[in-house]
Amino acid sequence: MTIERHDFTTGTELAQSLAEVVANKLADAIATRGHAILAVSGGNTPIRLFEVLSRQPIDWNLVTITLVDERFVPVDHERSNEKLVRDHLLREHARVARFVGLCNAASTVNTAALAASSRIDGLRRPFDVVLLGMGLDGHTASFFPRADRLDQAIDPTTRALVLPIHAEGAGEKRLTLTLPLLIEAQLLVLHIEGADKNVVFEKALAGDDEHEMPIRAVLHHARHPLQVYYAN
Ligand SMILES: O=C1O[C@H](COP(=O)(O)O)[C@@H](O)[C@H](O)[C@H]1O
Prior knowledge:
Structural class: alpha/beta
Helix content: 25-40%
Distance between the termini: 24 Å
Strand content: 15-25%
CATH architecture: 3-Layer(aba) Sandwich
Shape: globular
CATH class: Alpha Beta
InterPro entries: 6-phosphogluconolactonase_DevB, 6PGL, Glc/Gal-6P_isomerase, NagB/RpiA_transferase-like
Domain Glucosamine/galactosamine-6-phosphate isomerase: 12-220
Family: Belongs to the glucosamine/galactosamine-6-phosphate isomerase family. 6-phosphogluconolactonase subfamily.
Bound molecules: the ligand O=C1O[C@H](COP(=O)(O)O)[C@@H](O)[C@H](O)[C@H]1O
Keywords: Hydrolase
Largest sheet: 7 strands, parallel
EC number: 3.1.1.31
Number of helices: 8
Radius of gyration: 16 Å
Number of strands: 10
């Protein structure tokens, strides 16, 4: 496992620096392959980053944005990661990007996962940029400790793309991209803010049990150095 750590005094400085790095990577992909793919996390941490990123002057009409995970709620629900992306990232210059969500009007999380798998299967791999977050329980994407499908979700050899997943600590049922899609990203970023998350991250580095702290599956299998962006 190789980690490259980037520490910042404030979340604002982090957002500015990371937004430029992500935009440059997307612009490189556009120059080389004609389009770029960005997969982002939900939750609260990326809001400031999304807003700075949305103002980066790149060819957003050639960028596809998707999610690493989603809560199985209506897409206009306050806890929807899609809503977060629509409100904070798909605006300014980035409003013209193509968005591929994980939720649809499916009546069950299983059928939503099947539909999302076929949409994700249509995207070029490896993704150019994957932005991960981490919860205080050591989850990333929707790889929660004790989740019902955690074994398959963090299997680096699984052929599944999107899984329905449920865990006690996760609130609603979830949809998650599986580990292979994340670890093969050309630029893989873990974005964490706050001293409490830093403590959790140090604990993850100090142990091996991926079921206890599923973020370790990313640490163990990332194909390129994991870029850790941290602000107090
Ligand atoms: O539930 C989720 O939580 C994590 C971390 O969120 P945060 O609010 O602590 O930043 C997030 O990475 C994930 O995408 C989201 O679904």
